[in-house]
Amino acid sequence: MLNKKIVIIDGNSLINRTFYALPIHMANKEGLHTNAIYGFVNILNKIYKEYDPEYITVAFDMKKPTFRHNEFKEYKAGRKKMPEELAEQMPVLKEVLDAFNIHRVELEGFEADDLIGTLAKFCENKDLSPIIITGDKDALQLASDKTKVLITKKGISTLEQYGYDEVLDTYGVTPTEFIDVKGLMGDKSDNIPGVPGIGEKTAIKLIKEHKSIENLLGNLEGLTKKMKEKLTENAEQAILSKRLATIIVDVPVAISLEELKREKPNNEKVIELFNKLEFKKLLKDFDVKKERKTDVESNREVNMIDSIEKVKSLNEKIIKNEEFVLKIFSDHNNIRDEKIICTFMLVENEIYCIKDDGLLLELKPVLESVNIKKIGYELKQDMTSLKEYDIKLDGILIDVKLGAYLIDPSKKDYHISNIYDEFLGEYIENEEELLGKGKGKLNYSQLDEEKLMSYGSNLCIALSKLEGVIVERMKEDDLYELYMDVELPLIKVLGSMEYIGFKVDREKLKEIGNELDERITNLTAQIYADADEEFNINSTKQLGVILFDKLGLPPVKKTKTGYSTNAEVLEKLYDKHDIIPRIIEYRQLVKLKSTYVDGLEAVINEKTDKIHSSFNQMVTATGRISSTEPNLQNIPIKLEMGRNIRKVFVPTSDEYTLLDADYSQIELRVLAHISDDENLIEAFREGQDIHKTTASKVFEVPMDSVTSIQRSKAKAVNFGIVYGISDYGLSENLHITKKEAKKYIDEYLNKYHGVKEYMESIVKEGKEYGYVTTLLNRRRYIPELKAKNFNLRSFGERTAMNTPIQGTAADIIKIAMVKVYDRLEKNNLKSRLILQVHDELIIEVHKDEMDMVKNILKEEMENAVSLQVPLDIDMNEGGSWYETK
DNA sequence: GAGTTCACG
DNA sequence: ACGTACGTGAACTCA
């Protein structure tokens, strides 16, 4: 029968090895280095899989001196201090081990090695099979027929196993003799002297022959004169060295095998720690999942609403209760061709499901009632789904997902499973588990009945439990007003923008596409000729080889993976070869063709001939909205060639015209307001050209002699200020030296003293509270501010400076959107908001309503909030988006 | 799925 | 000494 296995790990030795074997830049976003822990846990994982041990323990050294220090003062003297990057990982590693419920052992006066030796011998006597894991060859003396010593090799990828035979095979001496070898040769890292002049080779040779140091010293015959001298002179030292190198195997320590039993990890703690350490892959490796709580409620009965009587009684119950949880599942195929599969409701702790559209319509009054509160998740989708049934969802709406976003907008996603876990520590199947992902992803109509019923009811329960917690937390964090006054009313505005869409001229798009195709074909041929071979121009790797290896152009910059070939690099090589300008043009054209012509063409709605982008309210860390499928917020404008794409975007019909209204310098105005800077405020109050004013101050010239070059430099400085300036960043942007850039910045901050004070105080504030806020109290946490890593911390500082500016601008335009939308609706106008691009709104205006709409826009946008400086907008109309300039 | 590039504010 | 401008999304290559 096989003996039970016990794994004994030398904690200090192993973490040292993993620390030096893995890249030191591995760190989480708080700046805590994680490489050594990562390696350690990986090895742990490997051991569990390969050996499946019955018992496990990790031994650590203590900082206190051991008996070896008492015997030999110089022991381990001159050893370098553990680097800070490793030291900070030690306590965290111990936390990880605790989370895994792995036993730890350390003892004053002894080293980890001694504890390991003692344990191994103890276990051998109990007929267990000890497996020692270490990064240190010293432990080889413990190898035996029963005890195996595993030593990390080549980084951490392999562990080499040594028993008695393997030590003998490899070194020609037995494990016990290995101690004598070390006694002779000494050990630099432990400062064990040994016999000077004897190294590993000689030591092994001598011990092979004489078996031990004592034997050797008693029989020096047959050795060279020099060797004899060395040995006699250092005899005492050799004996001492041997004693120091000997691992103690009878440390007086009480061992209880029971304590060393391998236990199940505390999954909750492991998950928490791995999340903190950002060990994504390891989470999967260990298959640590939250145990599903056997929630009595999770199998609650679903009341099917399948008759007019039932829907009427449900209706009454809702009116009486004044609130309910709502979750609509639709096939979600297409915004204007969407089919509701079923609607779940939770009223007074009872779950209902409606599948019949006709019966759902019976609930139109309660769904539209402003007096009845609805609790939901992704309510924008529900609103859109209901729109097809001519139902306008209204009332106090609590979107749990939106609330979770406001509470912490930096999260990567807000899946209900994560929110439920985070706020209540409870489990619900995640969407991925339910529907799959990627190609095989199902939609709700393909889900089998049973799963849909259980997921729908569990979701309603989760939402009803979460609502109170989320609202409470919003109130605590001063976010509730932002939610009620801005974010909630914005849901319907975004939904409406998506629903209405932006009309496109298909013919025009095709025309542009054809022209691009022709030019790309020609350019491709020329580039192949230039290169004297055909290659994939889209491949930066292949392009790099052609430009820098074959054609011998000087590489300007490198990336992680090779040569950089971005626009900036190509610009620097512009005159060096004919191929360069062609590549630059090729890149531009291909971008236009693939992203804007083909990309847009692919998302034109067949039914409406329009593009219905999705506007996401819960993505950005600053509070901006984002646009996807397609992104309508990055349609080209800077270069004429790309700008032509905007000719494709047209009004719905000849009754309409497009009107574009954009805030002028909104971010700098926001900066003027929040920094309270006298000069900046004055400049805006007097309607000055702000870049020119900045130029005049930075370069100390009168306003009317500012050159256009100075103005454009000042513009870059203004941008830099908004982004959280650094001399390096500005120097890169302006192609000037860092020193010069620093001069500009210093000059700026001298002249705009309020800005300087703001930048300093906001970083301080961020550090103190852990977050920064916008005008409307929108919050963003910045853990990077406390990072030890310089780059990360600097990034945190720039974020702290930029977020209140960008975020406040986002607040302002969101308010404007809600107000404009409401005015258009209240006045029963046909004109409607169809797009927002961060500081501009695009309205499709009915031609009869132009003046009225212009007034509404001007009023609502300029008075969205009241700042210390005026808000100013520019408006342009046109028959296509291109013309609104 | 990561890395690179490039379109916008 | 450190080495990046802030915020996004999409297309493409390559492992």
Structure description:
- InterPro entries: 5-3_exonucl_a-hlix_arch_N, 5-3_exonuclease, 5-3_exonuclease_C_sf, DNA-dir_DNA_pol_A_CS, DNA-dir_DNA_pol_A_palm_dom, DNA/RNA_pol_sf, DNA_polI_exonuclease, DNA_polI_H3TH.
- Keywords: DNA damage, DNA repair, DNA replication, DNA-binding, DNA-directed DNA polymerase, Exonuclease, Hydrolase, Nuclease, Nucleotidyltransferase, Transferase.
- The chain has 885 residues and is α/β, with parallel strands linked by helices.
- Among the domains are: 205 residues, Rossmann fold; 75 residues, DNA polymerase, domain 1 (Orthogonal Bundle), CATH 1.10.150; 182 residues, Nucleotidyltransferase, domain 5.
- The protein contains 38 helices and 23 strands.
- The chain has a six-stranded mixed β-sheet, with helices on both faces.
- A hairpin with a 3-residue loop joins strand 21 and strand 22.
- Helix 33 runs antiparallel to helix 34.
- The radius of gyration is 36 Å and the shape is globular.
- It starts with a strand and ends in a 7-residue tail after the last strand.
- It binds a DNA duplex (9 and 15 nucleotides) through helix 26, helix 28, strand 17, helix 33 and helix 34.
List the helices and strands and how they pair.
Layout: E1 5-10, H1 11-21, H2 35-51, E2 55-59, H3 67-71, H4 84-87, H5 89-99, E3 103-105, H6 112-125, E4 129-134, E5 148-153, E6 158-162, H7 164-171, H8 175-185, H9 200-210, H10 213-218, H11 225-233, H12 235-245, H13 257-260, H14 267-277, H15 280-285, E7 302-305, H16 308-321, E8 323-330, E9 340-347, E10 350-354, H17 357-361, H18 364-368, E11 373-376, H19 379-387, E12 397-399, H20 400-407, H21 416-424, H22 431-435, H23 449-476, H24 480-500, E13 502-503, H25 506-531, H26 540-550, H27 567-572, H28 579-601, E14 604-605, E15 610-611, E16 614-616, E17 626-628, H29 640-643, E18 656-663, H30 666-675, H31 678-685, H32 690-698, H33 708-723, H34 727-734, H35 738-751, H36 753-769, E19 771-773, E20 779-781, H37 790-826, E21 832-836, E22 840-846, H38 850-862, E23 873-878
Parallel strand pairs: 1-2, 1-4, 2-3, 4-5, 7-10, 8-11, 11-12
Antiparallel strand pairs: 5-6, 8-9, 9-10, 13-15, 14-15, 16-17, 18-22, 18-23, 19-20, 21-22
The chain binds a DNA duplex (9 and 15 nucleotides) through helix 26, helix 28, strand 17, helix 33 and helix 34.
GO molecular function: 5'-3' exonuclease activity; DNA binding; DNA-directed DNA polymerase activity
Subunit structure: Single-chain monomer with multiple functions.
EC number: 2.7.7.7
